[in-house]
Write a structure and sequence with these properties.
Blueprint (H helix, E strand, L loop, with lengths): L4 E8 L1 E2 L11 E2 L5 H18 L4 E9 L7 H14 L1 E12 L6 H10 L3 E7 L3 H7 L5 H13 L5 E7 L6 H13 L4 E6 L7 H7 L8 H17 L3 E4 L2 E3 L8 H5 L11 H7 L4 E4 L4 E4 L2 E5 L3 H10 L11 E6 L2 H10 L9 E2 H8 L3 H4 L1 H9 L3 E4 L4 E4 L1 H5 L1 H5 L4
Parallel strand pairs: 1-4, 1-11, 2-3, 4-5, 5-6, 6-7, 7-8
Antiparallel strand pairs: 8-10, 9-10, 12-13, 13-14, 15-17, 16-17
Helix pairs in contact: 1-2, 1-11, 2-3, 3-5, 6-8
Length: about 400
């Protein structure tokens, strides 16, 4: 993955209704602000591209919130502005997160025609009771229909998001969700253990006893069950929470052009940038970026974002007037991040030679104590004759214990 290319992340914080577990920046009942927000995004794109000298980009990711609330024409205009402001790879991966309750076949076809070539559907569960508990606005039947509509609209690269470890969830219910999801034949799956984030409606419900607290042991068993089922179905477990199919060029031109060497053909190219410590730019309210030696975050307010872009002036790349904070991204930061983020890559791990080539030093020298203790505890192992370090199966269940050693 070329370090001179950028990934572009766009945060679209609008929702019809906020999910009960979500702590990402999002807002309800402000859909009338979308046109002004899109205009501000386009100006932010133009300023960033000009300040960076029309940089190269090879991935675009529209996240949220609910970016599928964008009108396809609005998304098309944003993509046009990206192409005018950046040297966007003609084979770039362009992902749109979508809530099944906000799309139909015609809308999906319009998104595909606008240039989106990867769809990430937030299905979360195949149980309607669990969906209601999570505060989702769709049923599982609607999620299945959205997936079928996406296929008919021309999407050959579909990812499904699922959540496990829910209050009161049984392993049988989780197995049923996995079976139903696999029957849809997605190219990619992202499976996340529920985290009760402070301040969320779901966390408050558990705290007051309205819902049982999730059980860590049960969640671990569900994760292991997913590993077994997805491996049997032909998916490669390339990152702690992510599985993807391999695909041959015969499956479509995109499958060959968008793959990253060493990873499954359908691995998420944009998200690999984060785990491989490659530069990315964030656009929109609440977005984060890391480029040109800086980490930064935009202000978490739709109104203030629009106003800052409307009244502000360009800043030095990669910042815009929307940035509310920034800090230096140092060599020491990269040395450590390359370890704890790289260890999330369950197949590849952290290559000793690649690390040495990039930083000019051996991680076995700098982090000898941390590595030895984790190997002794059965959390890390050497692979490929000592060429790379990766998590063991036990380490994948206790990854945070390992990552904290390198933070």
């Amino acid at each position: 993955m070329d370090a001179e290319n950028y990934g572009l992340y766009f945060h679209f914080p609008f929702c019809l209704r906020r999910c009960r577990y979500c702590d990402f920046y999002s807002t309800e009942r402000k859909l009338a602000r979308i046109p002004a927000y899109v205009r501000a995004l386009m100006r932010e794109i133009e300023w960033t591209g000009a300040a960076g000298g029309s940089p190269c980009a090879d991935s675009v990711f529209f996240g949220g919130g609910t970016p599928s609330l964008l009108e396809p024409g609005q998304l098309g205009r944003v993509l046009d502005r990206i192409r005018k402001s950046f040297r966007l790879d003609p084979q770039a991966e362009i992902t749109l997160e979508a809530n099944p309750g906000t799309v139909d076949r015609a809308r999906l076809a319009a998104f595909r025609a606008a240039g989106v070539n990867r769809l990430s559907l937030g299905i979360q569960s195949a149980d309607d009771g669990e969906l209601r508990m999570l505060g989702r606005i769709h049923t599982y039947a609607e999620a299945e229909q959205a997936c079928r509509d996406a296929r008919r609209a021309g999407f050959a690269n579909i990812s499904l998001d699922l959540i496990y470890g829910l209050p009161g969830q049984t392993e049988a219910a989780w197995t049923h969700t996995l079976e139903r999801a696999l029957a849809l034949g997605p190219e990619h799956l992202s499976l996340y253990a529920l985290t009760l984030e402070r301040g969320t409606e779901l966390a408050r419900a558990v705290r007051r006893g309205a819902l049982p607290a999730p059980e860590d042991d049960a969640a671990a068993e569900m994760y292991e069950r997913a590993e077994e089922m997805l491996a049997a179905a032909g998916y490669r477990h390339y990152e702690i929470s992510n599985w993807a199919r391999d695909a041959s060029p015969a499956a479509g031109a995109e499958s060959a052009d968008l793959c990253v060497p060493g990873f499954p053909a359908r691995a998420c190219r944009h998200n690999l940038r984060y785990w491989l410590i490659r530069p990315y730019l964030g656009f929109g309210a609440g977005a984060h970026g890391c480029a040109a030696g800086k980490r930064y975050a935009n202000i978490r307010s739709v109104e203030k974002f629009i106003d800052r872009i409307r009244t502000g002036t360009p800043r030095r790349f990669p910042l815009t007037p929307a940035a509310s904070r920034s800090s230096a991204h140092t060599r020491e930061d990269e040395l450590r991040e390359a370890m704890w983020l790289g260890l999330r890559l369950t197949e590849a791990g952290v290559s000793r030679e690649a690390y040495r080539s990039r930083f000019g030093e051996d991680y076995c020298v700098r982090f000898r104590k941390e590595i030895d203790s984790s190997i002794t505890d059965g959390l890390l192992e050497w692979t490929r004759n000592g060429e790379a370090l990766r998590l063991t199966p036990r380490g994948r269940l206790l990854g945070n214990r390992v990552f904290q050693l390198f933070v």
